[in-house]
Amino acid sequence: QVRLAESGGGLVQAGGSLRLSCAASGISVRISTMGWYRQAPGKQRDLVADITSGGSTNYVDSVKGRFIISRDNAKNTVYLEMNSLKPEDTAVYYCNARRIGVFNYDYWGQGTQVTVSS
């Protein structure tokens, strides 16, 4: 059974930092494209950052230079380091694991709330 367990969300003041973790079981983050998405109230779920199996990273423009996505293969965990947080970063953050190919899959975590106060 596949499980993606996010943690690390919380309440932080603008300018602060948080580190989100996504611990995976049932799949390998090493061979997956792992992504962090976020959804604010009344808005659609959008990609924040992802990291491919080859280690290439991609960020939405609004977080470039502030957020860093990384992967620890030994712990089978993906992280999102969030710095210089802004109130507009407030959202539920979701971890995603996907793979396209012979064995394709698309899994989601339950989400973790990030609230940035001004």
Descriptive overview:
With 118 residues, this protein is mainly β. It is 0% helix and 54% strand. It contains no helices and eleven strands. Strands 2, 4, 5, 6, 9, 10 and 11 form a seven-stranded mixed sheet that branches. Strands 1-3-8-7 form a four-stranded antiparallel sheet, with no helix packed on it. Strand 4 (33-39) and strand 5 (46-51) form a beta hairpin. It starts with a strand and ends with a strand.
How far do the termini sit from each other? Answer: 40 Å
Low-confidence stretches: none
Number of strands: 11
Q: Count helical runs.
A: 0
Biggest beta sheet summary = 7 strands, mixed
Structural class given helices, strands, pairing?
A: mainly beta
Note the overall shape. Answer: globular
Write a concise synopsis of the structure shown:
The protein is mainly beta and 118 residues long. It is built from no helices and 11 strands.
What tags apply to this protein structure?
single chain; 118 residues; mainly beta; seven-stranded mixed sheet; four-stranded antiparallel sheet; globular
Strand and helix map with partners:
Elements: E1 3-7, E2 10-13, E3 18-25, E4 33-39, E5 46-51, E6 57-59, E7 67-72, E8 77-82, E9 91-99, E10 105-108, E11 112-117
